[in-house]
Design a protein that fits this description.
- The radius of gyration is 25 Å and the shape is rod-shaped.
- The chain is mostly helical.
- α1 packs antiparallel against α2 (67-81), α1 runs antiparallel to α3 and α2 crosses α3 (86-112).
- It has three helices and no strands.
Length: 117
């Protein structure tokens, strides 16, 4: 017959192992979600910012003033998403793409159920 104290200790060790496994998976999952959110937010902001910067710089060269129209069109496009403010529009687009990135990361975790190497 198994001693009741030994049975409780083995049950306690099993719970510790299961909780440790859960915490490791949960922390990996949260880190993955955070990275997905940050990268998904940064990608459109950096891309649109780079395009705006390059078009603005190119428009200062003589004969290439036509690129100024491209900058104006992009700012008008961003203003649509930002209620008239292009900065608010780029943040809105970044947040939207960030949410989509998090949802795709959650789907990926659901699909494969493991974040181990």
């Amino acid at each position: 017959m198994v001693d009741k104290g030994k049975k409780n200790i083995s049950r306690y060790l099993l719970y510790c192992i299961l909780i440790g496994h859960f915490v490791r998976i949960a922390s990996n999952f949260l880190v993955s979600l955070l990275l997905a959110a940050l990268m998904s937010f940064a990608a459109p902001v950096v891309l649109i910012g780079t395009i705006l910067g390059v078009l603005s710089l190119v428009s200062y060269f003589p004969g290439l003033i036509v690129f100024r129209q491209g900058t104006i069109h992009i700012l008008e496009f961003l203003a649509v998403f930002g209620s008239g403010n292009p900065c608010q529009g780029i943040v809105t687009l970044g947040l939207t793409v960030g949410v989509v990135g998090v949802l795709l990361d959650i789907f990926n975790f659901y699909r494969y159920q493991s974040l181990r190497d």
